[in-house]
Amino acid sequence: MELKKVVRDLKVVQTIHLNRRHFILELLAPDKLPLILPGQFSQALVTGSPSTFLRRPFSIHSVDYGRNTLRLLVQIKGEGTRHLSLLKAGDTLNLIYPLGNSFSLPATKDVLLVGGGCGVAPLLFLAQFLNQNNIHPTILLGFRTSEEVSEIEEYSKYGKVLVTTDDGTAGEKGLVVDHPVLQRESIPFKKIFCCGPDAMMKAIARMAWMHKTDCEVSLENTMACGFGVCLCCVTPTDKGNERVCMEGPVFNINRLKWR
Amino acid sequence: MELKKVVRDLKVVQTIHLNRRHFILELLAPDKLPLILPGQFSQALVTGSPSTFLRRPFSIHSVDYGRNTLRLLVQIKGEGTRHLSLLKAGDTLNLIYPLGNSFSLPATKDVLLVGGGCGVAPLLFLAQFLNQNNIHPTILLGFRTSEEVSEIEEYSKYGKVLVTTDDGTAGEKGLVVDHPVLQRESIPFKKIFCCGPDAMMKAIARMAWMHKTDCEVSLENTMACGFGVCLCCVTPTDKGNERVCMEGPVFNINRLKWR
Amino acid sequence: MPDLSVNIAGLHFKNPVTTASGTFGYGDEFLEFIDLGRLGGIFVKAVTGKNRDGNAYPRMAETPAGMLNSVGLQNKGVDHFCREIYPRIQDFKTNIIVNVSGSTVEEYVEVAERINELEKVPGIELNISCPNVKLGGMAFGTVPAMATEVTAEVRKVYKKVLMVKLSPNVTSITDLAKAVVDGGADAVTLINTLLGMAIDAERRRPVLSTITGGLSGPAIKPVALRMVWQVHKAVNVPIVGLGGIMNATDAIEFILAGATAIQVGTANFIDPEVSVKIADDIEAYLVRHRIGAVSELIGALRTE
Amino acid sequence: MPDLSVNIAGLHFKNPVTTASGTFGYGDEFLEFIDLGRLGGIFVKAVTGKNRDGNAYPRMAETPAGMLNSVGLQNKGVDHFCREIYPRIQDFKTNIIVNVSGSTVEEYVEVAERINELEKVPGIELNISCPNVKLGGMAFGTVPAMATEVTAEVRKVYKKVLMVKLSPNVTSITDLAKAVVDGGADAVTLINTLLGMAIDAERRRPVLSTITGGLSGPAIKPVALRMVWQVHKAVNVPIVGLGGIMNATDAIEFILAGATAIQVGTANFIDPEVSVKIADDIEAYLVRHRIGAVSELIGALRTE
Ligand SMILES: Cc1cc2nc3c(=O)[nH]c(=O)nc-3n(C[C@H](O)[C@H](O)[C@H](O)COP(=O)(O)OP(=O)(O)OC[C@H]3O[C@@H](n4cnc5c(N)ncnc54)[C@H](O)[C@@H]3O)c2cc1C
Ligand SMILES: Cc1cc2nc3c(=O)[nH]c(=O)nc-3n(C[C@H](O)[C@H](O)[C@H](O)COP(=O)(O)OP(=O)(O)OC[C@H]3O[C@@H](n4cnc5c(N)ncnc54)[C@H](O)[C@@H]3O)c2cc1C
Ligand SMILES: Cc1cc2nc3c(=O)[nH]c(=O)nc-3n(C[C@H](O)[C@H](O)[C@H](O)COP(=O)(O)O)c2cc1C
Ligand SMILES: Cc1cc2nc3c(=O)[nH]c(=O)nc-3n(C[C@H](O)[C@H](O)[C@H](O)COP(=O)(O)O)c2cc1C
Ligand code: FES
Ligand code: FES
After folding, report:
1. Is there a contact between C60 and B222 if contact means CB atoms under 8 Å apart?
2. Burial class (CB in 10 A: 0-12, 13-18, 19+), A23
3. Which of A164, C80, C108, C170 has its CA 20 to 30 A from that of A252?
4. What are the tens digits of pLDDT across the range B243-252?
C-alpha cells in the first residue's frame, strides 16, 4: 500500500452520537484506502457553514481496510464541528488524508497511552496497531465527567483501560497526570504516547522527563493547509520551526522546546 | 389588521416542486399574519449557503389568513434559491414581511394581468384580491416551455387564463406581448398589471402607451435591505430616484423614465 | 447590572451600540422593528449642502461575506433635512448624530453650521471618506493636510461634538487620525468602506454602474479591527469603531481594540433587530466575565 | 480548442493559471495531488538572503471568507534554495518563478543575483509588500521612491523576467505600479495581503502572535479586482492578478479587469487540486462563449 495523500469524497456510513459533545463519523472511501498510520490525521471540508472557511483537522480514530472505512471522533467546539455533527448516513464528506507523520513503533512492551478530551481520538487506532505488533498497552483516558466516558469496551480490546474524570463521577477523580498509576516512585512504563490539551501533554512530559521515560506527544496547532505548504502550523523544535502537519503532529518530547 | 413590517421565523408546511426550476414554499407564521397587500414582497434569510450573505426578495404568491400561511413561488437562479429549494416541511425560514407598496385597486373591470418567469409570483395573490372586489381579470402568463406551465387551475379560479411559451409547446408560441389578445387594433383592457423580466415589462409598457391603457408594473432591482434604508434599489421616476422596496415595487408606467 | 454607558467628549451614550450612517436611514424606518431608545445613538444618512440624486443603478453587488455599494450620498440636502426630517426624528430617545458630507470645504462648513442650530442633535460625524463621489470625500480623507483643513474649518463653526469618519483606503490610517485630531476633532470614526469592484463574468461587465464601490460587511472586519487598534495606540481621542460587526462578540473585539463606541452597519440589512440584540449580548458578556462596566474593556486587549 | 496561452515580457505561459507564493510551498508538496505540468507557472515561497525562522505561533486566524497569516517569510535562505530546493524542482514542466524578499536593498539584490544564475528559473517576483517583517517589505512597498529604487537596483543584476508584487495597503496603487515600472519592472503582481487583525474576545487577546497579519481569501477579492482594474488603466505592463480567486469565474473576472495571468493562493489550502480545475474551467468558459483565445479577454471589461 502506498502512503499517498488523496482528496476524496467519503460517504457517511453512520454518525454515532456518544454524548452531547462527542460523536463518531464512520466514512466509506470511494476507492481502496491508502496505507494509514496511527497518529495521522485528515482535513475535513465543512459545507453549509458560512463561518467555516478553512478545512478542519481530525485524527484518524480507527481504520477498517476490509470494509474500506475509517472513523473520526469529533468533539463539538464551534460552528465547523457543529455542522459535522449534523451529517447523516448517505451524506458526503470531503477529506484530504492521510496527513502528517505517525507514532513510532516502540521497542518495548511497557507502553502507556494517555489521552484527554478529543485527544483520545488517535489512541484507539494506535492501540490497535500496537496489538498487531504484540504490544498490549495500558490506556489512560481522561474525561470531564462520567457522561462523556465512552468507547471503553473498544479500548479494552487492546489493553488495560484506566479512567479519570474531572469531577470523579467515573474512575479516579482528577487529571490524568494525577492518576495513581503515575504517582509512584518508578512508573512501570518505558514509553508513553500522549495526545490531549497542551497543558495535559506538558504535565505528562514533565513526568516523563522526571522518570526518564521516552514520550511522544501529538500536537495541535492552527492549520490552514494541513499538507505542509502554508507554514502556519509550526512549533519550535531542535531543528527550528517545524511544521506540525508534516514533521508532526507526533513529536518526541525531547525535540520540543518545552523544558 | 395592521400594515406592519415584522421579522419572523416561519415554519415550512410543504415544498411543492412544480418543475426543475420552480417550487412553492408554503409557510406557517408563528403569530397572526399582518395585513398583506397584493404586490408586496418578503426578504428571506438563506442559511447554510456560504456564498449568500444578503437576504433574497420574493413576492408574496398567496395568503391564507384562515390557516395563517403564505406561499412564495421561487425560481432557482443561483445558490440562494438553490438552498431554499432544499427546505423541507418542518424547517424554518426567517422572513421580513410584508414589504413594499402594492398594486392598486382598479376603477375598471377590464383588467389584464401579465406575468412572465418568476414574475408570475405576485399575480395569483393579485387575482384573488381582484376577485374579492368583483373583478375577473384576464390572466396572460408566459413560460419558457410546456414543462414549466403550472398552477393554471389556480389562476383559472380567478379569471380567464391565456398562456404563451417561448417554444410553442403550450398555448401560443412567442412572447406574452405577441399573444393575439394584444395584437388587435384596440385591446379590450382598461388596466394592465404586469410583472416579469425588464424587457417584457418594457414591451408591455410600450403597448399600453400605444393603446392609452393604464398600466402598473412591479420592478425588480438589486436590494440590500428591502425596507428603505440602504438606497441601493432606486429607480428613476418623475420624483427623482425612488426606492423600489418602499415607493415600489409597483409603479405606474407613467411615473417611470421608460419612454 | 453592569454599567453599559460610555462617554465621547462629554456626550453620554447609554450603551456603546450605535448604528452606521447610510445603513439606518433616518432611524424612523426602524421604528417598526426596534425601540430606538435602547440604542446608544444613531448616525443618520449623509447630509450634503444641496439635493443629490446619487449614482445610477445598479448600486449594489453582493461579495463574499460582504457587499459593495455605490449609493453616492443620495439625499435631499441640508435644508430639507432641517425642515422635513429633523422634526420627525428629534424626539427619539437616543443620540442623533448627523453624518455631514460635501465636495468642498465650504459645503462641509455650510452643512455643519446648519446642523449646529439643531438643538437635539448633539454631534456630527464629518464624512471625509466616501469613495463614491468624484468631486468629493476621497481627497479630503486621504491627504492629511486636507483632512486637517476641513476639520479645522468645520470646528470653527461647529460647537458640539465633532467626530470625523476616516477612510481605510490609505497607507497610514494613523497619519489621517492625527491630522483630524490636529484639526480639532473630538473623536474619530473608523472605518468607512474599502474601495472595491465586482464583475459579472458572464456578461463581461462591471456589476455597479460606477464600476467601483464601497465594500462593507464581515469581509472587512479584520482590516477595521487593525485600524482601530493602530489609531488607539496613536491618538488620544475616543474612537467609534465599525466594519463588519454582526454580533456582540464582534462589537467586543472592537472595544478591546480601542473603540469607545461601535456602529452596526450592513448587519442591519440582514437583521433589522440586530443592534438591540448586540446591546443585550454585550451586557450578557459583561455579566459572564464579571466586568462591572463596559468602559473597562476599552483598549483592554492583553498583548503582554 | 481555444488558445489558453499568455505571454509576459516574452515568457510563455501555457495557460494563465499560476499559484501564489507562500501558498504552494516549492510545488513538490502538490505532486501527490496534481500534475504541475498542467499549470502556467508556480510562484514558490519567498526566498531571503539568510535563514529566517519566521514569527512565533499562532500564525493563523480564520476570518469571514478569509484568513490572516503571520508566517513572516520563514525560509532557509538563498543558499539553501539554490543547493537543496532548486535541483529538486528544476525539472517541473511549468514556469518556476521565485518570490524574492529582503529587508534591505542589498539583500534583494543579493538574492536576485543568485537566482539569476539558475538556468531553469525564467523569472522572479520581487516581494516588496510583505506586511509581516518589521525591518522589511512594508516600507519598500508603500513609498513609491523606495519601490523604484529597489526595483532599479535589482534590475541591474537580474536579466530575466522581473515582476514586482505590490502591497494593497496604500492610498494609491497606481502610484506604486508606476514607480516599479519606472524602476524597470517587466510586470506587476497584485495584490499581496491586506493588513488585518483578529481578536479572541473570550480570552481578550490577539489571535496572532504578531497581533496583526495578512488577510487573504475571497474577502479581499473586491479590493484586488479594483486594484487590477486601476493599474490596468494606469500602466502599460502585464499584470498578474490575485486575491481570493477560488474558481474559474473569479479568475476570468481578474482577466477581464486587466490581468494577463492569475495566481491561486489561499484556495490551494481548501482544495489542493483547484488550480488545475481552474485551468480546465477557463477553457470551458472560452468554448461556451466561443472565444478563440484567453488573451482576447485581458482587460476586455465592457464599460461603455
Ligand atoms: C492534527 C490535529 C488533529 C485533531 N484531531 C481532532 C480529533 O480527532 N477530534 C476532534 O474533535 N478534534 C481534533 N482536533 C481539533 C479540531 O480540529 C478542532 O476542534 C476543530 O477544528 C474546531 O472547529 P470548529 O469550527 O468547531 O471550531 P472553531 O469555531 O474553529 O473554534 C472554536 C473554538 O475552538 C478553538 N480551536 C479551534 N481549532 C483549534 C485547534 N486546532 N486547536 C485548539 N483550539 C482550537 C478556537 O480557538 C475556538 O475557541 C485536531 C486538531 C489538529 C490540529
Ligand atoms: C421585489 C422583488 C420580488 C421578487 N420576487 C420573486 C419571486 O416571487 N420569485 C422568484 O423566484 N424571484 C423573485 N425575485 C428575484 C429573486 O429575488 C432573485 O432571483 C434571487 O434573489 C436570486 O438569488 P440567488 O441567490 O438564487 O441568485 P444569485 O446567485 O444572487 O444570482 C444568480 C443570477 O441571478 C441574477 N439576479 C440575482 N438577483 C437578481 C435580481 N433581484 N434581479 C435580477 N437578477 C437577479 C444575478 O445577477 C445572477 O446572474 C424578486 C426580486 C425582487 C427585487
Ligand atoms: C448602503 C450603504 C450606504 C452607506 N452610506 C454612508 C454614508 O452616507 N455616509 C457614511 O459616512 N458612510 C456610509 N456608509 C458606510 C457605513 O457607514 C460603514 O462605514 C461601512 O458600511 C462599514 O461598516 P459595516 O461593515 O458594518 O457596514 C454606507 C454603507 C452602506 C453599506
Ligand atoms: C500563508 C500565506 C503565506 C504567504 N507567503 C507569501 C510569501 O512568502 N511571499 C509573497 O509574496 N506572498 C505571500 N503570501 C501572499 C499570497 O501570495 C497572496 O498574495 C495573498 O494570499 C492573496 O491571494 P489569495 O487571496 O488568493 O490567497 C502568503 C499568503 C498566505 C496565505
Ligand atoms: S497547516 Fe499548512 S504547513 Fe501545516
Ligand atoms: S433595498 Fe435598501 S432601500 Fe431598497
Report:
1. yes
2. buried
3. A164
4. 999 999 999 9
